[in-house]
Amino acid sequence: MPSKIKTIDKLAFIILNYFGVDHTKKCIGSILPNNEIHIFIVENSNSQREKEKIINLFSEESVISLIFPSTNLGFSRGINLALARAIDEGYEKFVILNNDAFLVDGAVKKFQKAINLQPKTLISPLIEWDNKVVGNVFYHKYLTLLSYSNQKGKTFWMKYLTGCCLLFDIHILKNNQLLDEYFFMYGEDIALSYRIINSNYKIRLLDEVLVIHAGSLSAKKSSLFYEYHVNRGHILLVKAIAKNNFEKIMMYILRFIVLSIKGLWRSIKYRTTYPLLASFLIWFPLKIRPQKQ
Q: Is residue 291 included in any domain, yes or no?
């Protein structure tokens, strides 16, 4: 096991792979030219074929550790699993990066500098996403709306950092975990930013595009998996952000109305019943998983 003296100043990159080896390879390639890093890959596909591809590509790389859970853990549990492994090996500074994203030249050094200068801070770079630059995102706690324009100071709007790329040190972890594991996929980054803002820590956006993101490749929009989990996230967020029982009741009532209308509209738009069906299923903790590819 690496000693803490050797690892304490290195960045531990955490990347989840889900049936996306080609994207993961490009992502890893944008990190590997740097020295002071180690990469933890969680192979989250629960597929023997995908596992073999990952092993063939990366098993000989000394700076890459491969983790193979026995089932698809979802995003939050997969990240926390890799974090636990990294912490056991002495790492204290971390980068979460989507496998369908890659770094621009010089990004790793800038990540290291940002974490060193701002301990106890959740940090994100600007991200080029579908030819748009994404920084702070704002979430309406009652109407479940997202806004990429500045809503600072406006009632009921919350600022958060997208989970595509997050930088942080060990101090902001809660019981050595970053994300709430009752989120399977979607919503965990909003809950995390809310927790950080309402603690003694900070969130900060770097004023530079350091990550290029291809988009949501792990889930097909309008599929039952996507529609269920993206909207189930809104339901689970009530637990994370409501301050009292009155807020909880109001959030649940408005979510029922807004998400039902949204499900109907998306069913018409995509000509499938899945969005409307999902708007009713989201009230139940179901194990809806994507079809294996």
A: no
